[in-house]
Specification:
- Helix content is 78%, strand content 1%.
- It is mainly alpha-helical and 507 residues long.
- It has a single domain, classed as Amino acid/polyamine transporter I (Up-down Bundle), CATH 1.20.1740.
- Helix 8 crosses helix 9 and helix 8 (189-225) packs across helix 19.
């Protein structure tokens, strides 16, 4: 079915309000940073205290819904209709879906985060710090924070957009996510408000992720080349990333994003195999198996917090922090991920956006988190001391320094971090720019260049402001504030998917 052709131009209603809000946010943070951080922290605390249960229960129920969909007749439905043809091979689909969602997270937090859980486990579980139990808990937590639950957020959102966009012929807008629930009302004022709020939220989430990427790259430059950290250098690193992901986004889905994703996943796989074989192999298997067993055993109680007592502050600082970050990215990532899926079944969509990326993340965390826990243990907490004295960004390089060919592998890792964020960001900049334009459809999917440049530049500017004024705390603030409004949108999206499932509206 051909789509009506219309001229590509700026959608002023969607574009200008989030730009205005972002400029006000940046301006106020520069004018009175202390007061800005106080207000942002107050808002973050209020969100976490009052909505932690909604975050945890909704993410768990998303997995339940997706499981039902997988085994239902809806699972056999072809996205785009029975005559639709794929635009990607399954391998390319896997590489793009995986690399555009993990960003720098698995490299930055994959080695640093487990050390916090080893040395500072939640008091409510009565686990002694630096004990065998705390190591198992750390590995289990890495699997919880980086596999099926967070990918469920992306999958349920992306699937509903794919069905709405291709099968129900809805426009390339976030409001189309609400079409299964609200019908034509989705594109009225409420839908426009969702477009604006989610654009604002995603810029916050992307800026948070970019901040982590900049810190990780700075850590590599410090460790490998002895270059001292400075605000100017942080800005230059951010500028290099922004220029790169804008250039990639300009080239479109079938060029830059495919090339970067294909190369990036191969580097990830090679790096993981190298660390597995040259690192503490036996201990990687030991920690990985113990952690996986604990993850499976405690998945239900830790997902719902029924029958398990975890310190609230730990929950806010870690689990809810992660969920808010994934929620912030999910609505606009859904537009990109949904666009990839034409020609494949709903069941295939769940394979390539939930199951396969989650299994990849579990293997990655088993290898890198396991190595981190092991080296920290035999060095009596040396890696955790690095976090406290130098920053999280230096842990990965300290681990690589324990392995053969450490300098070469560290440089490769540095490049992987760079490409990793570029790969994730270009897909979202492409989607943000497309929804800020009119005339976007499957036959004409790319927005004008200048819109991509504006969004990419704003993300870089916000990230630089936050990391130079608030550091890692600024990253956490951006993540929480960006993910909060998306929580309610994605709950509505999930209800819409249930409605499609029950009413059998798509065949």
């Amino acid at each position: 079915m051909a789509y009506a052709q219309s001229k590509l131009q700026l959608n002023k209603t969607v574009f200008f309000p989030p730009i205005l809000f972002l400029v006000i946010t940046i301006g106020y943070s520069l004018y009175d940073n202390t007061r800005f951080l106080e207000l942002a922290n107050t808002a973050k605390t209020w969100i976490l205290v009052n909505f932690a249960g909604l975050f945890t229960w909704s993410t768990f129920l998303f997995l339940v819904i997706l499981t039902v969909v997988y085994f239902s007749p809806l699972g056999k439905v072809k996205i785009g209709g029975s005559d639709a043809l794929p635009i990607l091979t399954k391998w390319k689909w896997f590489t793009i879906a995986t690399c555009t969602t993990i960003a720098t997270g698995i490299l930055f937090w994959g080695t640093a985060e487990p050390l916090y859980h080893v040395h500072q486990p939640p008091s409510g579980l009565s686990i002694a710090a630096s004990s065998a139990d705390s190591k198992t808990f750390a590995m289990s937590t890495m699997f919880m924070h980086w596999s099926f639950t967070p990918y469920g957020i992306y999958t349920i959102t992306g699937l509903v957009f794919a069905l709405s966009y291709y099968n129900l012929r809805q426009p390339f807008r976030i409001s189309s996510l609400l079409y299964p629930l609200l019908g034509k009302k989705a594109h009225r004022s409420l839908g426009t408000a969702m477009d604006i709020i989610c654009l604002y939220g995603l810029v916050a989430g992307m800026a948070a992720s970019l901040g982590a990427g900049i810190f990780a790259l700075m850590g590599g430059l410090e460790t490998i080349f002895g270059i001292e950290k400075s605000d100017t250098l942080l800005g230059l690193i951010g500028l290099a990333i922004v220029v790169s992901f804008i250039a990639s986004a300009v080239s479109g889905l079938k060029k830059g994003i495919q090339i970067l994703s294909n190369g990036n996943i191969k580097v990830f796989i090679a790096l993981a195999i190298f660390v597995l074989l040259c690192g503490p192999t036996i201990h990687i298997f030991k920690y990985g198996i113990n952690g996986l067993g604990d993850y499976i055993t405690n998945f239900l109680p830790r997902s719902t917090h029924i029958g398990v007592s975890i310190n609230d502050q730990w929950l806010y600082d870690w689990t809810i922090f992660y969920w808010t970050n994934w929620f912030a990215w999910a609505p606009i990532s859904a537009l990109f991920l949904g666009r990839l899926s034409v020609g494949y079944s709903v069941r295939d969509f769940i394979h390539f956006n939930l199951i396969y990326p989650s299994l990849f993340a579990i293997l990655w965390m088993a290898i890198f988190s396991g190595s981190s826990v092991y080296f920290d243990s035999i060095q009596e907490g040396a890696l955790f001391s690095i976090i406290q004295n130098q920053g999280e960004e230096n842990v990965m390089y300290a681990i690589l320094n324990e392995l053969p060919l450490s300098k070469i592998i560290s440089v490769i890792t540095l490049l992987a971090i760079f490409v990793s964020y570029v790969t994730a960001a270009d897909s979202n900049v492409s989607a943000m720019s497309a929804m800020s334009s009119t005339g976007i459809n499957p036959e004409n999917p790319e927005a004008p260049l200048w819109i991509k440049v504006i969004w990419g530049s704003l993300i870089g500017l916000i990230a630089w402001v936050m990391i130079t004024t608030a550091g890692i705390d600024g990253i956490r603030l951006l993540s929480v504030l960006g993910g909060f409004p998306a929580l309610f949108l994605i709950i509505a999206v999930a209800i819409g998917l249930v409605k499609m499932l029950v009413r059998k509206e798509i065949h």
